[in-house]
Amino acid sequence: MPDTQMLILLIVVALLATLFTVGIVRILDSIRRRDARARADEIMRLAQHNAEAARREIELEAKTAAIQEKEKAENEFRQIRKELHDKERSLDKRQDIFDKQVDDLRKQERLVENTQRKLSDRIAETTSRGEELAKLIEKQRQALYELSGLTQQEASERLLHSLELQLQEEAGAIVMKHERLIQERCDEQARNCLLLAMHRFAAAHTAEATTSTVDIPNDDMKGRIIGREGRNIRTFEKVTGVDIIIDDTPGVVIVSGFDPVRREVARIALNKLITDGRIHPTRIEELVAETNDEVQNYVQKAGEEACQEVDVFGLNPRIVSLLGRLRFRTSFSQNVLRHSIEVAFLSGVIAAEIGLNEKIARRCGLLHDIGKAVDHEVEGGHPKIGADLLKRYGESADVIHAALGHHDDARVENPYTVIVAAADACSAARPGARRETLEHYTKRMEDLESLAMEFSGVEQAYAIQAGREMRVLVDSGKISDTAAAKTCRDIVKALTERMQFPGEIKVTVIRETRTTEIAK
Fold first, then answer.
1. 320-370 tens-digit pLDDT
2. How far is the first Cα of the chain from the last one, in angstroms, to the nearest whole number?
């Protein structure tokens, strides 16, 4: 019995253990399922978050790409609009030229009609006079028959002899008359041709000044320009070769110098210094060097614009650069570049009027004074210098001879030389186009500087104060202080012996040593 109870107890215990185990398993399974569901929810949430982030990133990239494409399209649109605007301006300019040509053609047609009408009147008058002369001769013949009682043959012989003598005298007079008329007609046609050319191109010339004014914001800026003990203004005048005049005139500083290139470099550099506000010797030298490069670029651009204005292309780049330098060159106060452009237009019009090549004539006129760009550097007159330059850079014989002979310095070999000489005279002889005083003044300044540059060791020489002062910069490595004093005396002696000048000239020789190191 006890064994049976034990067995039953064991069975009951086993059943209870089984039921407990099953319950535990079910509880654990429920917990695992809940954990799995939570992990699944977490994974879904992360997946949704990543998907949302990816979507946002894709949208951002798409928007950025759209903005870039829009900017690119806008840039292209602006470029196209600019090109269309340039083409429109070019078409307007060509339309204006065409309208002027049409007006000139109408004037020429009216002139031809008037000439034809005058010729018709003269022909009718001549015919009428011929008929009257025939009637008069017939009357004289009949009168001779009645008075002389001669036979018709004898009367005819006497009459013919008398008429022959009379006609010989009249023929000489008629020949001389027609020669005079032809000469007057040629002179009239030449005057009309020149007047037409000058009327179709009339440009005003403004005399170049020797000073430029620079506006300053206040009078305190004058002290900053002068600097401590004058070091700023001395540095500026030394590196630019001009004279800075600071007086009691409010709001302006005057830049004085005979060389317009130096004066322009100084004016622009001084404006930059005033705008920048940092005025000290190092900054002055940097800005002057930078401005000098800008002016050189402006010279090249001025040459290209001159070629484009007169429709002359295919020039050597060196010739174009020399043309630009003429922008800062004057002859009797007449700007040489504007004078060359005017001569080019006048030459082209004259050549077209007499049936020659207009393009060649314009090219000859534009380049006829090219020697003036370097005549202060090369010995000789500007016609010979210009002809050598044009020959060196491959210009045609017509262009070379026009430059060489436009002042009657050479025997005329082609008509373009005569055309250029006439156009040059027309441009220079217009009232107000030239003034001789400034040309003599500029030549004297150049001679002063050239004389100082002849001495050994001289690096730069600047004539300032209208030629009343000379500043000479010498190489400190070649010339000592004692030698600098001797050089100054030698320059003064040479000026006294070789040049004529009013008043007196103050010569200042500047010798300085500079040491520059760079910390890295």
1. 888 888 887 777 667 788 888 888 888 888 888 888 888 888 898 888 888
2. 111
The secondary structure of residue 250, as a DSSP letter, is T
The 3-class SS string of 240-302 reads HCCEEECCCCCCEEEEECCCHHHHHHHHHHHHHHHHHCCCCHHHHHHHHHHHHHHHHHHHHHH
For residues 275 and 141, give the distance between their C-alpha atoms in angstroms, rounded to a whole number: 102
Largest Cα separation within the chain, whole Å, is: 215
**Strand 458-464 and strand 334-335: pairing?**
unpaired
Q: Which long-range contacts (CB under 8 A, 24 or more apart) does 312-321 make?
A: 312/344, 312/359, 312/362, 312/363, 312/366, 315/367, 315/393, 316/393, 316/394, 318/393, 319/367, 319/370, 319/389, 319/390, 319/393, 319/395
If we measure between CA atoms, which residue out of 394, 421, 424, 393 comes closest to residue 409?
421
CATH number corresponding to 439-510: 3.30.300.20
Q: Is 417 helix (H, G, I), strand (E, B) or coil?
A: helix
Sign of CA dihedral 36, 38, 39, 41: positive
Alpha-carbon distance of 474 to 496, in angstroms, equals: 21
d(C-alpha 459, C-alpha 477), whole Å: 11
- 472, 460 in Cβ contact below 8 A? yes
Q: Which two tokens stand for residue 476?
A: 């400190």
Asked if 268 contacts 316 with a C-beta cutoff of 8 angstroms, the reply is no
Note whether 343 and 424 are within 8 A (CB). Answer: yes
As a whole number of angstroms, the distance between CA 366 and CA 372 comes to 12
Alpha-carbon distance of 63 to 281, in angstroms, equals 52
- Count CB-CB contacts under 10 A for residue 233: 18
Which amino acid belongs to residue 390? L
Alpha carbon 209 to its chain centroid, in Å, reads: 19
Q: What is the pTM of this model?
A: 0.46
Reduced 3-state DSSP string for 181-226: HHHHHHHHHHHHHHHHHHHHCCCCCCCCCCEEEEECCCCHHHHHHH
Q: Which CATH number fits domain 211-309: 3.40.1550.20, 3.30.1370.10, 3.40.50.720, 3.30.310.50?
A: 3.30.1370.10
Q: How far apart are CA 95 and CA 125, in angstroms?
A: 45
The structure tokens listed for 307 are 């070629």
Query: Which two three-digit tokens encode residue 443?
Result: 């030549």
Within 216-301, strands assigned E span: 243-245, 252-256
Q: What are the tens digits of pLDDT across the range 292-328? A: 888 888 888 888 888 888 888 888 888 888 888 888 7
Beta bridge partners of 509: 472
Distances (CA, A) of 85 to 12, 96, 99, 227: 107, 17, 21, 48
Domain residue limits, the chain: 211-309, 439-510
**Cβ within 8 Å of residue 227, ≥6 positions away:** 233, 234, 235, 279, 280, 281
Pair type for strands 252-256 and 211-215: antiparallel
